[in-house]
Amino acid sequence: MRLGYLINVKSTVAHLTSLLLKVLTDKHCKKQMINEDKIREACASDKEHGFKLLMENFQQPIYWHIRRLVVSHEDAEDILQEVFIRVFRHLDRFREESSLGTWMYRIATNECLRFLNSRKEQAVSAEEVQEELMNKLMASDYVDYDNAMAVKFQQAILSLPEKQRIVFNLRYYDELDYEEISRITDTRAETLKVNYHYAKEKIKEYMTNN
After folding, report:
1. What percent of the chain has a predicted confidence (pLDDT) above 70?
2. Across the chain, which distance is largest between two alpha carbons, in Å?
């Protein structure tokens, strides 16, 4: 019984991986988000088709949200795959208390934190994890290295405490409002506003003094 269960799990993961890779490599994927209601309706009538629509519409913003937190393309792809596997497994349990996008950003953020915490357990300190991310920044195609200000800006963001970095990215890059970020991070909107303010001030200070 246990062996059969493991085989089914591996088969499901392999199938989802192939679907995800197809979406990631399809140059003709739709660029424009379709109505979330249509995705939910598709999920209800044909889970696999609905899930494919969900990947086509969310894989790019979710990938970049992850990439900004973990920097490495390889790590981001691994986490993205895990996010979509979790989404597929729990799609039937999705409660419409938030949008699909908010729900997926929450899962992605938690997966990033899980990954970063695992790195902290392997490292001596949080500072070492920060240094590791800085090194990955300089060793990847994450930023235009001919643009010194762009490089410094990314270094400034990586120098932020974890919570401030998450809030700054969601607000600055993803342009989410504080209520939505609150649902993603399970943090009061007022606290998020303070975190965002401090993040901006620290980035300005880093850009000025480095």
Report:
1. 80
2. 62
pTM above the 0.85 mark?
A: no
Q: Where do we find the tokens 């915490």?
A: 117
The letter for the amino acid at 104 is M
Neighbour tally for 178: CB within 10 Å = 18
- Please tell me what DSSP assigns to residue 186: T
The answer to whether residues 198 and 164 touch, using CB atoms and an 8 Å cutoff, is yes
Q: Give CA angle at 88 (86, 94), nearest 5°.
A: 90
Contact in structure between 100 and 88 (CB atoms under 8 Å):
no
Q: Angle 31-49-52 (CA atoms, 0-180°, nearest 5)?
A: 40
Q: Mind giving me the DSSP string for 49-66?
A: HHHHHHHHHHHHHHHHHH
| CA-atom Rg of the chain in angstroms | 18
Residue tagged 């969310």 (tokens): 58
| Spatial CA neighbour of 183 closest among 81, 102, 89, 110 | 102
- pLDDT band for 123, please (50, 70, 90 cuts): low
Question: Of 54, 62, 44, which Cα lies nearest the Cα of 106?
Answer: 62
Q: What is the DSSP letter of 140?
A: S
Cβ atoms of 79 and 108 within 8 Å: the answer is yes
